[in-house]
Amino acid sequence: QEEALLFELGRADATGVDFDEPEPFIARLGTLERTGDIGLPGLSEPEAVRHYVRLSQRNFSIDTGPVPLGSCTMKHNPRLNERMARLPGFADVHPLQPVSTVPGALALMQELAAWLMEITGMPAISLSPRAGAHGELCGMAAIKSAIAAKGEAATRKVVLVPDSAHGTNPATAAMVGMPVRAVPVRADGTVDPAEVAKLVGPDIAALMITNPNTCGLFERDIAEIARIVHEAGAYIYCDGANLNAIMGRARPGDLGIDAMQINLHKTFSTPHGGGGPGSGPVVLSARVSAFAPLPLLRTGADGVELVEVGADADEARPFGRLSAFHGQMGMFVRALTYMLSHGGDGLAQASDDAVLAANYIRVGLADLMSLPFGNRLCMQEVLFDDAWLKDSGVTTLDFAKAMIDEGYHPMTMYFPLVVHGAMLIEPTESESKASLDLFVATLRDLALAARAGDSERFTGAPYYAPRRRLDETRAARQPVLRWTPPAPIAEAAE
Amino acid sequence: QEEALLFELGRADATGVDFDEPEPFIARLGTLERTGDIGLPGLSEPEAVRHYVRLSQRNFSIDTGPVPLGSCTMKHNPRLNERMARLPGFADVHPLQPVSTVPGALALMQELAAWLMEITGMPAISLSPRAGAHGELCGMAAIKSAIAAKGEAATRKVVLVPDSAHGTNPATAAMVGMPVRAVPVRADGTVDPAEVAKLVGPDIAALMITNPNTCGLFERDIAEIARIVHEAGAYIYCDGANLNAIMGRARPGDLGIDAMQINLHKTFSTPHGGGGPGSGPVVLSARVSAFAPLPLLRTGADGVELVEVGADADEARPFGRLSAFHGQMGMFVRALTYMLSHGGDGLAQASDDAVLAANYIRVGLADLMSLPFGNRLCMQEVLFDDAWLKDSGVTTLDFAKAMIDEGYHPMTMYFPLVVHGAMLIEPTESESKASLDLFVATLRDLALAARAGDSERFTGAPYYAPRRRLDETRAARQPVLRWTPPAPIAEAAE
Amino acid sequence: MRYLPLSETDRGEMLARVGVRSMDELFADIPQAMRAHGLPKLPRHKGEMEVERLLSRLAAQNRPAGAGPFFVGAGAYKHYVPATVDHLIQRSEFLTGYTPYQPEIAQGFLQYMFEFQTQVCLLTGMDVANASVYDGSTACGEAVLMAHRVTRRRKAVLSGGLHPHYAEVVRTLSALGGDTVETLAPDVRATEDLLAAIDDTVSCVVVQTPDVFGNLRDLQAIADKAHAHGALLIAVFTEAMSLGLVTAPGDMGADIVVGEGQSIGNALNFGGPYVGLFATRAKFVRQMPGRLCGETVDAEGKRGFVLTLSTREQHIRREKATSNMCTSSGLCALAFSIHLALLGEVGLRRVARINHAAAVKLADALGAVPDVEILNDTFFNEFTVKLPKPAADVVAALAAKGILGGVPVSRLLPGAGLDDHLLVASTEVNTDDDRAALVAALQEVL
Amino acid sequence: MRYLPLSETDRGEMLARVGVRSMDELFADIPQAMRAHGLPKLPRHKGEMEVERLLSRLAAQNRPAGAGPFFVGAGAYKHYVPATVDHLIQRSEFLTGYTPYQPEIAQGFLQYMFEFQTQVCLLTGMDVANASVYDGSTACGEAVLMAHRVTRRRKAVLSGGLHPHYAEVVRTLSALGGDTVETLAPDVRATEDLLAAIDDTVSCVVVQTPDVFGNLRDLQAIADKAHAHGALLIAVFTEAMSLGLVTAPGDMGADIVVGEGQSIGNALNFGGPYVGLFATRAKFVRQMPGRLCGETVDAEGKRGFVLTLSTREQHIRREKATSNMCTSSGLCALAFSIHLALLGEVGLRRVARINHAAAVKLADALGAVPDVEILNDTFFNEFTVKLPKPAADVVAALAAKGILGGVPVSRLLPGAGLDDHLLVASTEVNTDDDRAALVAALQEVL
């Protein structure tokens, strides 16, 4: 059954809430009272429940099946997190109520900060960023501020970005006014310190690197790279999207990283929710820690203090404010709940299991699908390219869409850009061995079918989803971005 | 995708909870410590979530589409009810903690009782019964006790039950040790007082009637029937399953009813939950009110009092206890939440809308489907028979199964027994006009297809459900009522 | 009104289509003399915010178990239920679905029922279990009726260790059906001579373990004698968690096992809804009351599940049914099944051990209080304490100090001469601080 | 560990299949010198019950808005959100789904986004809206950057009525990008001369209404002058509920409308997550940041929805993107959309009127307190009060009496000489008793 749009179901006079009109009073709106209809449709509660329940059923989710999206870390979202985030003491607290009435909220933020610093081995953190890319912006802003503090703002402006970077890295560099220069990736999928050495100089502000990188590999020369960058007077930003691979195995703080965002909705299980909200705290090295944004947390005589104004920031030199209030508290509660549940032992085990699962998939598929950097150990995700599909009439996209018919969310496709037709698979630690075995068996079955020339199974896929393939070109060429009322019949007839 | 059984997914060493072993201690189990494996499978939390989410998706529910089951009143289940029932002050309270620590719980029960008595116009109530049939048992026990108190226990034993009664009515009579005698229904689908007059006598304990009855009709001679029954020294039990038709329009207390159960999961929106839990408070007339079961609520000097012991019951003469503790508190909270939300005006409007919706469906289908008692006004449900399907090769069952393919839960089928191939449709007040229009249009389309001889669409239905028709005969002939481990291969080979 | 989708315009159009001029006319079948005119004595509808405030105010007048030290049991127990359980049972497709009479669109319900039945069989050591009944006490009442059907006898013998509410339910049902019940005297120390009560007129013996006083009972000898006389042994439990640590009734010869499943997956709820577990031997299945799910195949040969053996049930058999029940405890059974799946074998056993350890700790601590005597040799997570004062007074005094210290036996058995007896339970939710607080407070109030 | 499905046996089998002898070997690529060896300084894993207790203890140290009289606003507002909203957004298929890049299995997300975009257009009076950004303040910052792109100028003028946090965000982003910002002085009584600040170098004027002091602003004259000079008007709101009662920014000439949507559907959450609304004129759509959902058809011609115009976005355009954002405020936007669907036109307008009435009542009552002055001529549900004492002290004194009385302007604008100014908000959650309590307490503490 199809589900109509809210605007087709709803009615101007319908409502799903009951409030009595206020008693007559004299309005204080001046001349600015809204006139005319807004045009909003309303639904009674039963209709609203059915509409959204039906809509939900048209979505795939972790709870319904594996979502092996590389670099997205779609792991289990515990329900305890949701329950804790809804405690009135967290959910029903205003960011500007007196600080004396929220000591528990500040303590929670401080505790979260302590865990994240310990996990990453970094000495400072800002909880303010509202998503991963916001965290990148925060980290690069801190680096830019540190450069400015050294009086090099005018000269040190270029950011080095490896080919394999997320699109957010160059976009973030652009937002802090820094042009990007590419660093080629060597044949084994990692960054060559020699290449970095060639590129660094007094114009270089920072290197943005991802580690483990988007090929699923640990940048084994990271320490050497860091040394080269730091000696050149520049800084290292690390994209922390893949932190889930290395908890308890390596600490960014030991690798020479100056700033790194932590996607709480990846490594620390806050729900993706179909695109957000995220949360992207940034850990900072001693080199840049003075340059975090407002607000700051500080341990004072009376416990945790909240610093909201630059003048109160003591030795800190905040570069400003990235958003209103103190950050994504709701996500902090969930992430801390997750961490307390796992403990240090559980977090390390999670990383181990995640890496084991990716390698298990790798060996399960290595004979049928092609590994651009050879059949070697990977981190929490394994990268295939489309060389094995050559001449099959099946593309990476087709293959991914056929996975839908088998009950899976497709893997990350066509990313990273350094390999052709990339398929980046990250199972996470949340899948059982039985689930991994079934996944491997299913992909083997699909791969054999593709090689056998059964291309229709792929090019027409998905067949068993709520929709067949959608016309994205049409959507972009003739954008219809909102509902508009159908023309009245009389008008239409004119 | 299929979903394996818990026993196929789970493992003996897996668990989704974390507890540390207790420190060593000396057990006090005597010789009765359990030895050997229990055989229970465990799941990690991610696996459990996925298992049950996937299972849920194989169910139809009110939230996903209309469930027009006659006499079941599948109405909207507000989420506020769920939230209120989970307040720690209701959900986390023990039935045997000191009464002084639960005044709010008793007050809530008292308030619920007051609303139910006012809606039904009855002077007394027992909240104790745990479901509708339990309420019937309670009501009939009260009647039996009243008869015994008059010294007629040995002689007055027969219960009159109209043909159109629910199966629970005779089963309940059997549980109170009373044989059943049938009352034929007259041609217009209601009970004829003259028939009752013929049957009453000193051996008759009670008449069990349903009003509105299961043909969707109001028993218009109920007052006359009550007079006859009472004059003969007997009592009237009314099945309250269809109370949703008459709130604010008629009160059982004004009709001469002596006892009636109220299904909170029908009229008062507590969730059906795939079969329970229910709750079946019983309202009682002055004639039988002394004979309610324990525990009782009573308004004393210090507010509401809980009477748990017969000796403390003053003028009441409880016939015993129907179950442990005080009843379905969780359902009481939900029902009262629903009532407070609706208010007297909203409850009356709900009944009006429910009756209007049933009649709207009636007139929408009357020309295509057959109405056994003529195209006349009905109450909250409309009854069709299968006369119109004669020679079509399509049965009531086939027609109902075809509704599944159109996105509907089938209506009640083959009940009441007084008509052939009954189809009993109750839309409730929760469906919008658009939903009712679509329902009528869909059933018209189906009816026309059935008449046009497209029998395959029906006899093979459902085609688009998680399962095709299931072999119920096999299930009953070779019952497999639990999972058993597959025989080990070696053993199987022997 | 937010729950009513029809607008006044809709109503007008629909009335016109129906062919009546007003809502009043729709109710023409109700004779004028009987007509009610709305519900004017009830208050007007209220907004959600206002309703929430009203109910929150009532709720706030009650003292939740989780608000402080809590040792109340006697048939309902405070355990920790994972957040996942409550989340899952609130899914629309579980919460708002109907009884699965249409199996094609109810496989989710039916499969969990099949899994639940199996879990109950494993826990109790029995062959078959139904998909749940109202609660433990009604399960007990139905078990006695079933034993009468199986044995064609009409006399039940109830142990003096049976929960008094359960015994009352049995007596109520038996009185209605004209059957006989012999209830033994309250048996605090599990010393009653049940064997002596068994003869060829008895249909069943009903024994609870752990009994209401907390004692564990070895049922084998009772089973043997009952069987020798053609009677059945009905084993009862009120604390399902105990089955993780103590011998299964099915391993001690029970013919029917019934009990309360609230402890697993369900909140205290001031007494309900709970979930009655009901299991028996395969040979008695057709005499069993309640809903049953069975495995079968669909038209394409795929495994599927249906409600089955419904010829036992009221909607088919009418007055010949095994019971008049037509409601199970659906969502509570689902919660039970999910919680038990999360626990698994290792989790259940461990939590059961923690419960026992908690009770042992508490018994040792209370036993050391002057003038306090622990009456049990054996117990699981609850035991009976003899106090130098009426237990009801002590409980009231403890409550005034914020401690819910247990259930006075006098509340369950008034007039039985056990007014100085107190039932005390300790589960995994109790901390050492909780126990220390009880001991300290008890010393003060004694 | 309950969240990790692999057993030790599984791990052993999988390691063998991978061809390594230990977990350590899996991490061979990490040079030994950099290896960490677990996280020994962090505590061990904890059971759910224990974690819940720890967090509940922290939560209990905070004073929730619902615990007593509450008048705090200044950019985040306490409103009543129906239980249905939170229930629906917790459905697995909404909660745990990924960004809808695979539209065939994400039509539920995409359809609500299309509906959300339309709702935002209607509320703001604009042509197009994105599927939400982080919050109102970041929306404001992004709007300025967008205006720079559209006008190819790099100077923004900020009204003195703009929320100081929002102004700070604009200044931070502008400083990073090397752009210029002119911020007018705090404008308590809405008397600033914005028109004078507009010239041909200005890319945009940013004006909030209701402004941070509560005043309603007529934007038309500013829009006219801005347009005459080739600049854009960016209209900002921090209280989405106001759009139900006050003139839409789109009807006063705004080119970009941004604001905070928290008030509809979302809790206070101590500042986040919230939902940033972002709408503009159709002609600017390709310069707009953020995710957009558009209608299209599938291979069978059925209506469907996809993410579209992604050539604006970072994952395609890299450094040429309109923003680096790759996260919307998904679930918060869904909550907004559901709550607004439940409200509908009539509900939104009515709740907005109730808010206004509540604030008018409170203003009248506070205005009658000696030495207290209400500074606003106009307002929606919040206004500025001048006190005879520092507002921060007054707020602290009120808090000690259990009343959260508002936000001292000094907290937002320290050193601005407005220490005796207090922002006070009243919404539909406030009762007459709440207001009376505030007035009484204020009289005591002044």
Automatic annotation (TrEMBL), chains C, D:
Q: InterPro entries, per this entry?
A: GcvPA, GDC-P_N, GDC_P, PyrdxlP-dep_Trfase, PyrdxlP-dep_Trfase_major, PyrdxlP-dep_Trfase_small
Q: Which UniProt keywords apply?
A: Oxidoreductase
Q: Give the top-rank taxon of the lineage listed in the UniProt record for this protein.
A: Bacteria
The EC category is oxidoreductase
Q: Kindly list any coiled-coil regions of this protein.
A: none
Q: Name one Pfam family in it.
A: GDC-P
Which reactions does this protein catalyse? N(6)-[(R)-lipoyl]-L-lysyl-[glycine-cleavage complex H protein] + glycine + H(+) = N(6)-[(R)-S(8)-aminomethyldihydrolipoyl]-L-lysyl-[glycine-cleavage complex H protein] + CO2
GO MF term list: glycine dehydrogenase (decarboxylating) activity
A Gene Ontology annotation in the biological process aspect, one of them, is:
nucleoside metabolic process
Q: What is its EC number?
A: 1.4.4.2
HAMAP family, A to Z? GcvPA
Q: What does this protein do?
A: The glycine cleavage system catalyzes the degradation of glycine. The P protein binds the alpha-amino group of glycine through its pyridoxal phosphate cofactor; CO(2) is released and the remaining methylamine moiety is then transferred to the lipoamide cofactor of the H protein.
Q: Subunit notes for this chain? A: The glycine cleavage system is composed of four proteins: P, T, L and H. In this organism, the P 'protein' is a heterodimer of two subunits.
Q: Which family does it belong to?
A: Belongs to the GcvP family. N-terminal subunit subfamily.
Q: What is this protein called?
A: Probable glycine dehydrogenase (decarboxylating) subunit 1
